[in-house]
């Protein structure tokens, strides 16, 4: 029976050099899926800097510092030989180049001592299409040009070492992990709960344009299921796959549902309401957005506009307002919530996601053609 290693197995990420938000959540769910299938996966090594919960009998947790030097990591991994490695950890640095360098070296450190590997499955994300730089081509397909980054670097490493690989591209991950406030669902939930506490009005804080655009999401458990399928499916060899829920959503559909869940009301004229000076923000993205690379061949030369992040309510500033802090203090005391939840939530990330002024749509056709049929309604995953 096959054996596996999973990096990024817990969701805690208190330091900047540790797992990014989505990776801890995604790694946790991969461990959970492997643990539930003990008939197939006899031995699973979960690697992370901390253990936040108990695991099934076939899962063993090993404490490891992914930022350590090669010698110390080799010592920690001494004697461990597995068939599959699931890389769900991502070490966040100050620049993209530093991100590529440190994560590439980490992958080499972990796989370098293993001589029986059958396949390595790497989680990157839709950043591979440049969604953080501006409008990408719609819909995004795995055959689109790669932005220089983790996936391309990983592909080169794998080719040099004759190592079989799979890369996954989740987007706007939905999931939870104990001790991890750095995720989309938790931040939106805190925003909605505080809005209910203050005045019951749930105002969309992001871009008016994006409110009626299309977006797609990845439920962490669905991503884990695709990882297990891609690990064992021979036709997935040396391939990249989009991993989204299978539907295409819009905040004009999700936001009123969110308001109803929290007992709030969306103001009928929310985008006409006056905005206090200094509470919003606009950020220009790359002057040459990703879609410009193929604009000429699609007949769109000179017609591609750069993207922006438009926050009617800058969520970082909002989270620092005295009335917001007091509302959270009341909520935390009354409902038994973690007091530092407001401080730990990733308001900058949520502001970026809701503030984009362009569509984010990924195609699932490639995985579907190979037999993948996983699906979940995005609202049901929230």
Write the layout of secondary structure elements.
Blueprint lengths: L2 E5 L13 H16 L6 E6 L10 E5 L6 H7 L7 E4 L8 H16 L7 E5 L26 H11 L4 E6 L2 E2 L9 H15 L9 H4 L6 E2 H13 L6 E5 L7 H11 L19 E4 L23 E4 L3 H5 L2 H14 L5 H4 L2 H9 L9 H5 L8 H4 L1
Parallel strand pairs: 1-2, 1-4, 2-3, 4-5, 5-6, 6-9, 7-8
Antiparallel strand pairs: 10-11
Helix pairs in contact: 1-7, 3-4, 5-10
Summarize the structure in words.
By secondary structure, the chain is α/β, with parallel strands linked by helices. The chain is built from 14 helices and eleven strands. A seven-stranded parallel sheet has the order 3-2-1-4-5-6-9, with helices on both faces. The radius of gyration is 21 Å and the shape is globular. Mean pLDDT is 86; it is low at 11-23.
Task: Average the pLDDT over all residues and give the rounded result.
Answer: 86
Question: Ends: how far apart?
Answer: 35 Å
The SS-based structural class is: alpha/beta
Range of helix content = 25-40%
Number of DSSP strand runs: 11
Number of helical runs? 14
Which strand order do you get reading across the main beta sheet? 3-2-1-4-5-6-9
Poorly predicted runs of 5 or more residues: 11-23
| Largest sheet features | 7 strands, parallel
- Radius of gyration, CA atoms, in whole angstroms: 21 Å
How big a fraction of the residues is strand? Answer: 5-15%
Give the CA-based shape.
Answer: globular
Order of helices and strands: EHEEHEHEHEEHHEHEHEEHHHHHH
């Amino acid at each position: 029976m096959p054996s596996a290693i999973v990096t990024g197995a817990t969701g805690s990420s208190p330091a900047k050099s540790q797992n990014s938000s989505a990776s801890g959540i995604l790694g946790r769910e991969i461990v959970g899926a492997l643990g539930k299938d003990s008939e197939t996966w006899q031995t699973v090594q979960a690697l992370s800097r901390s253990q936040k919960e108990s695991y099934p009998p076939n899962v063993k947790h090993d404490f490891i510092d992914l930022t350590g030097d090669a010698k110390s990591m080799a010592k920690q991994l001494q004697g461990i030989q597995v068939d599959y490695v699931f890389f769900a950890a991502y070490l966040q640095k100050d620049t993209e180049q530093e991100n590529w360098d440190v994560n590439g070296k980490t992958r080499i450190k972990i796989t370098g001592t293993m001589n029986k590997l059958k396949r390595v499955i790497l989680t990157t994300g839709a950043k591979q299409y440049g969604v953080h730089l501006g409008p990408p081509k719609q819909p995004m397909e795995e055959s689109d040009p790669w932005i220089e980054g983790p996936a391309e670097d990983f592909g080169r490493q794998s080719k040099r070492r004759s190592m079989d690989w799979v890369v996954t591209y989740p987007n706007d991950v939905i999931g939870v992990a104990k001790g991890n406030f750095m995720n989309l669902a938790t931040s939106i939930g805190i925003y909605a709960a505080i809005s209910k506490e203050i005045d019951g009005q749930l105002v969309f804080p992001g871009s008016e344009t994006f409110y009626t655009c299309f977006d797609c999401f990845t439920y962490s458990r669905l991503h884990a299921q695709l990882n297990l399928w891609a690990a064992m499916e021979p036709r997935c060899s040396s391939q990249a796959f989009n991993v989204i829920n299978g539907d295409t959503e819009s905040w004009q559909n999700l936001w009123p549902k969110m308001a109803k869940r929290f007992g709030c009301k969306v103001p009928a004229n929310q985008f006409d309401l006056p905005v206090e000076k200094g509470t919003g923000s606009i950020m220009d993205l790359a002057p040459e957005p990703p879609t410009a690379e193929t604009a000429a061949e699609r007949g769109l030369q000179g017609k591609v506009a750069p993207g922006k992040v438009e926050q009617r309510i800058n969520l970082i500033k909002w989270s620092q307002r005295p009335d917001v802090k007091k509302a959270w203090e009341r909520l935390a005391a009354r409902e038994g919530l973690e007091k530092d939840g407001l401080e730990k939530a990733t308001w900058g990330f949520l502001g970026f996601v809701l503030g984009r002024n362009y569509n984010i749509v990924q195609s699932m056709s490639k995985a579907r053609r190979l037999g993948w049929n996983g699906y979940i309604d995005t609202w049901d995953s929230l």
